[in-house]
Specification:
about 350 residues; alpha/beta; Isopropylmalate Dehydrogenase; 2 domains; globular
């Protein structure tokens, strides 16, 4: 058997410097052995990291690197930092517009490194979008921005925790807009991307997709709305005809309890809160935001900048640690899937 080359390290973008991103990155690195963390480097300002370590009482060695390839040699003894200098000294809980261009640049740099094969996946610390708008940020969130950097028109958001995966048909739009824009085509497209990602990036050979209804009781045969019969159900039939194991529409209030979750690998949800409320209720600490449908892999903690606790040293790194683990697992699954596909192609050509 051929020996496979080590997988490249994970790239962690710094996120909003006035938030908890630096603190949780430092705490995650400190737990590298106990949590068996994969090697990662952070794109950030070393001075900011050092100041946050001192403020939080964390003893963390930092080492600047010139390239991600140095990560594996550094990670055991110091947190590898790919330097990106901030324009202004960050104050906890008080975002500064002067640092917005660097926040954006860290994401762009991380994406570029993954695209070049120097990093295996990007893990993104939380950003504060309002602070970025003055620097030309025109996107509803990380998901749409990274998709634009990758030239992808329809990114798909998955939230994943050990007990549940949810995939969203609509993302950062109002509830009214989510309902008005719902279509069989959108459900089909999102479900197909989810099915492909579950196979390639999660190692699930035959994914099962539970499709949520839009209305209470999935419309109750039209008594509570026609969308489930006229939009959701036709999409499910189209997916089944294409060989995808999808079923529904299911009443949203009964599809997330423990027994129901045993029968599917991901829930296709019609709008943002329909999926995020059950997932965050079940496992807020280990929820991970994953962007599907990209040529690269991206994961993120499923929480925000937490300005209210920034600088207090009490932020939990749990979701970031979960994101780092899941990103590394996806890198491994995708590499194995692509190797198998390449081997099959070579065999068929021989």
């Amino acid at each position: 058997m051929a020996i496979q080359a080590p997988l490249p390290p994970l790239a962690l973008s710094m996120g909003e410097p006035a938030g908890i991103g630096a603190e949780i990155a430092l705490k995650a690195w400190l737990q590298r052995d106990g949590a068996e963390l994969p090697p990662f480097f952070i794109i950030a300002d070393p001075d900011h990291l050092a100041e946050e370590a001192a403020r939080s009482g964390l003893s963390v060695a930092l080492q600047a690197i010139a390239s991600p390839v140095e990560t594996s040699a550094v990670f055991a003894k110091a947190l590898p930092v790919l330097p990106l200098r901030l324009a202004a000294r960050p104050l906890p809980g008080k975002p500064d517009a002067a640092n917005a261009p660097m926040t954006i640049a860290a994401i762009e740099r991380a994406v570029g490194l993954v695209q070049a094969g120097e990093a295996g996946a990007i893990v993104t610390n939380p950003i504060h979008k309002a602070a970025l708008y003055g620097a030309g940020f025109k996107y509803p969130g990380h998901t749409e921005f990274i998709a634009a950097l990758c030239g992808v028109q329809h990114p798909v958001m998955m939230l994943a925790a050990p007990a549940l995966r949810v995939v969203l048909v609509s993302i950062h739009v109002s509830l009214r807009q989510a309902i008005d824009s719902l279509s069989s085509e959108a459900i089909r497209r999102v479900s197909e991307i989810a099915d492909s990602a579950l196979r390639r990036d999660f190692g699930i050979a035959k994914p099962r997709l539970a499709v949520a209804g839009l209305n209470p009781h999935a419309g109750e045969a039209g008594a509570m709305g026609r969308e489930d019969a006229e939009i959701v159900a036709p999409a499910v039939k189209t997916l089944q005809a294409a060989g995808i194991d999808a079923f529904g529409p299911l009443p949203p209030d009964t599809m997330f309890h423990a027994e129901a979750r045993k029968h599917y690998d991901a829930a296709i949800c019609m709008y943002h809160d329909q999926g995020l409320i059950p997932l965050k209720t079940l496992d807020f600490e280990r929820g991970v935001n994953v962007t599907l449908g990209l040529p690269i892999l991206r994961a993120s903690p499923d929480h925000g900048t937490a300005f209210d606790i920034a600088g207090k040293g009490i932020a939990s790194p749990g979701s970031l640690i979960a994101a780092l683990h899941l990103a590394a697992e996806m890198v491994q699954h995708r590499a194995a899937f692509d190797r198998a596909a390449s081997n099959r192609a070579a065999f068929d050509a021989s």
